[in-house]
Amino acid sequence: MNNRVLAAIGFGIFGMGTILWSQEHAEQIDTAMISTIRDQELAHSQVMDHVSWLADVYGPRLTGSPGFRQAADWTLKKFAEWGLVNIRKESFPFGKSWALTRFSAHMIEPQIQPLIGFPKSWTPGTKGKVTADVVRVDINSEADFEKYRGKLAGKIVLTQPARDVKMLDGIIVSRWNETLFKEAETTPLGGGREGGRGGRGGGRNLGEKTQEFFSKEGVVAAFDRGGEQFVAGDTQMKWQAEHVDGGTIFVMSGGPHDNEHAGKDLVPQVTLAVEHYNRMIRIMDKNIPVKVELDVQAQFLDETEPNGYNIVAELPGSDLANEIVLLGAHLDSHHSGTGATDNAAGSAVMMETMRLLKSVGAKPRRTIRIALWAGEEEGLLGSKAYVSQHLVGSDGKVKPEYQNLSAYYNLDNGTGRIRGVWMQGDLAVEPIFRAWLQPLRDLDVPGTLAPRSISGSDYTSFDSVGIPAFQFMQDRLEYNSRTHHSNMDTVDRVQRDDLVQASIVVATFAYNTAMRPEKLPRKAKVSSTRAEP
To answer: How confident is the model at residue 4 (pLDDT cuts 50, 70, 90)?
Structure first.
């Protein structure tokens, strides 16, 4: 018999209220509750409704923006409706919030053409609607500033050369397969490069100095066609830089958000679709002038109190209530799309997990806590603040909650279904997770457990201080090729059935973790990490 038949038979037996002792590991699993969780989610899922509220109604959700605040208030109300407890905001210093209120761009000479584009976050607006000649600049070092000094006032500058637009013949929709599963499970620990995300560094790079030069020279705006965010060795960013087109643009931050630097020495920065950018370059190469009409209206919002905050709520435990199982996803997004796959999808799954457990009457031994993070896109700021406030202070002293946190589970790779778990070098959890995954195989969970440590989202904040912290392995689908930090990150790209599956898997892991006699084992030492593939 195949796995699906075995699983169906197994759950028919489990539904009778028995307790399963795994043959692979002495894990006591309440199969009746797991079966109830599964049946409830398959029949009555609300996960897509959560996604639509977060992304359609309140997205985009740049940290500190009106959209983020509205989404946060909505989640607080939903948690209260579901009967969760200890619902709260936990604040941390962030800086100035930023909001785009209007944008339009048209090439008006030699022909009229609406331009597909989007301003970068934390860049200033134009002084109303402006019309300006377009010029190409080629700045590769500070020495190049002299070539343009005194020549750029009142101009819109194109900061990159044209890029060849290739056929989309690569991996557009990415799914795990047997070859990739085997590679993930057999790649040795260590040897990877450090990943993660950084904030504003101590030194000023050429890009910052170029922006300051443009500002002093009176440049109206700077246009690019994307790809400048490419990081050496980052396969995802390399693919985006070399392939993405068809009106999809990947838009990043254009400046710092801290109170000292936000909005200073900057000009408006706009990322254009490569096809429209290239057309202007080709016209100018024929010595034909190009003129653009541009209107960017953006606001920097001064704050009287810390405007970064995480949203926290709990399903209380019983005899081990002081111990915690933590679920998390980042609520914030970039601003060019509605943040549906990055990361309304992950937030919705974690919210649905809490709703689901409450609705089926789960009585966990440990407290199950959800945290929806702010500031992930600016360097994991929300989860780092949580670690500092709850686990290990800035002085390096360990806090009481550190020993009581059993595990942290994270979801942040788009809309694809869960296929396994990155173990972060915590090899002692392998037999435990393998026992938990066995009853889920008929949900297209092959049970892949990848040993190595990876980095790139909020689990890194917890893993770095020795907490058992795990990212679920998901099918990337269009995450790399279309939706990640792009104007196409919309609800239309979200796959309902995959999010339903993910909700069942996360709820199963959360409940099993909360019911074990012991907390999950911790690894002896933090291993080196590599960026997530």
So the answer is: very low
What DSSP string runs through 42-88? HHH--HHHHHHIIIIIS----TTSHHHHHHHHHHHHHHHHHT-EEEE
- Label each residue of 174-190 as H, E or C: ECCCHHHHHHHHHCCCC
What does the alpha-carbon distance between residue 60 and residue 337 come to, in Å, rounded to a whole number?
6
Q: What is the DSSP letter of 267?
A: -
Distance CA 311, CA 216 (A): 41
Q: CA dihedral defined by 229, 193, 414, 53, rounded to 10 degrees?
A: -70
For 97-177+200-301, give the CATH class: alpha beta
Cα 287 to the center of its chain, rounded Å: 43
pLDDT-based confidence at residue 476 (cuts at 50, 70, 90)? confident
Strands of 393-496, DSSP E: 405-410, 418-422, 448-450, 454-455, 469-474
The whole-angstrom separation of Cα 33 and Cα 532 is 33
Name the CATH topology of 3-95+307-531.
Aminopeptidase (3.40.630)
Question: So where are the chain's domains?
Answer: 3-95+307-531, 97-177+200-301
Task: Give the pLDDT confidence of 314-360 residue by residue, as tens digits.
Answer: 999 999 999 999 999 999 999 999 999 999 999 999 999 999 999 99
Domains 3-95+307-531 and 97-177+200-301 share a fold: no
Question: Which residue(s) pair with 421 in the sheet?
Answer: 449, 472
In three-state form (DSSP H/G/I as H, E/B as E, the rest C), the secondary structure along 286-353 is CCCCCEEEEEEEEEEECCCCCCEEEEEEEECCCCEEEEEEEEEEECCCCCCCCCHHHHHHHHHHHHHH
Q: Is the dihedral of CA 187, 387, 419, 330 positive or negative?
A: negative
Could you tell me if 62 and 99 are in contact, meaning their C-beta atoms sit under 8 angstroms apart? Answer: yes
Q: Which residues pair with 156 in a beta bridge?
A: 134, 221
pTM of the complete model:
0.90
98, 334 in Cβ contact below 8 A?
A: no
